[in-house]
């Protein structure tokens, strides 16, 4: 079965530079939102550290975003683990109640 998604070219701006991207039509708004978010974070770093080169700004921003993502993944995994522990405890209690009957 052929993929019916269409790609399109869009242009995004990050730190005053224009980048051409090809995206699925249905992903355009999301891609623009992400590019805007990255641009804002890079501009924030550049404003706080105007002496830094553009490449340094990009790398430090990428590291900060990766750290945020890693932290969120750990929090999500921890939440899932806690939920699984609670479900196991409930199953054990339910099992003991059923056995007592």
List strands and helices in order, with pairings.
Elements: E1 7-14, E2 17-24, H1 28-48, H2 54-100
Helix pairs in contact: 1-2
Which key terms come to mind for this protein?
elongated; alpha+beta; two-stranded antiparallel sheet; 16% strand; 101 residues
Query: How many domains in all?
Result: 1
The beta-strand count equals 2
Instruction: Provide a count of the helices.
Output: 2
Q: What is the string of helix and strand elements?
A: EEHH
Q: What Rg is obtained from the alpha carbons, in whole angstroms?
A: 23 Å
Structural shape: elongated
Strand proportion: 15-25%
- The average pLDDT is 89
Write a compact overview of the structure shown:
With about 100 residues, the protein is α+β, with helices and mostly antiparallel strands. The protein has one domain (about 5-100).
